[in-house]
Specification:
Distance between the termini: 41 Å
Strand content: 5-15%
Order of helices and strands: HHHHHHHHEEEEH
Helix content: 40-55%
Strand order of the largest sheet: 1-2
Largest sheet: 2 strands, antiparallel
Structural class: mainly alpha
Bound molecules: ligand ITP, zinc ion
Shape: elongated
Number of strands: 4
Radius of gyration: 20 Å
Amino acid sequence: MFRVNNFDKLLDKATSNLRLEPDWPTILQICDLIRQNDCSPKYAVAAVKKKLYSQNPHQAMFALLTLESIVKNCGSGVHDEVASKAFCEMLKDLVKSTQHENLRSKILELIQAWAFAFRNSPKYRAVQDTVTILKAESFKFPPLKESDAMFSADTAPEWADGEVCHRCRVAFSLMVRRHHCRACGQVFCQQCSSKTSTLPKFGIEKEVRVCDACYDKVSRPPSS
Ligand SMILES: O=P(O)(O)O[C@@H]1[C@H](O)[C@H](OP(=O)(O)O)[C@@H](O)[C@H](O)[C@H]1O
Ligand SMILES: [Zn+2]
Ligand SMILES: [Zn+2]
């Protein structure tokens, strides 16, 4: 649980109401924790959501900026959370209930950017539906900056399910434990995923478990 507390500490720091300016280094550290699977997207989004309700408008705004960054940098695990019906409903209610015009316009900006970014993903249509509803209720959206809807594509793949090792096909059991390769997301036995590597392309700076095939790929000298 230490790692999760580490996340909580960073989030408290990034949303401290003692600050007047955003703490971008801490916000980026929060993104790294999620990208490295040190904190689950579900836990992270739920924790940021709580800060959106702070009575202190600075704290709520810093939470929105943190939310914006993790959506941009942490990939589909976070998108699944923020594009859920419940989360969109929560944002719609906040747009209607907040007393602070800057919070309202920041939320409208985010929902609009996400709707554009997810425009080809039917499973995220709750975001577009929310834009449609708020427009029908005469909320004014800021001009869309397409750059706001550019999300980093280079995040580690989601972990696959599987009852057998993706490489040697051995069946998992109490004795044959299941593991995941952080580079390809596939499921492996210990023998086929006994090596570790950093994965800088995914923003993973620490050694994480990778399968033999991915190990060969990432440790091959760049010349070949
Ligand atoms: O050991 P378990 O209780 O079975 O849990 C497994 C470990 O958490 C593995 O982590 P690892 O890949 O870092 O080993 C993970 O990849 C598996 O999906 C989990 O089932
Ligand atoms: Zn295997
Ligand atoms: Zn792999």
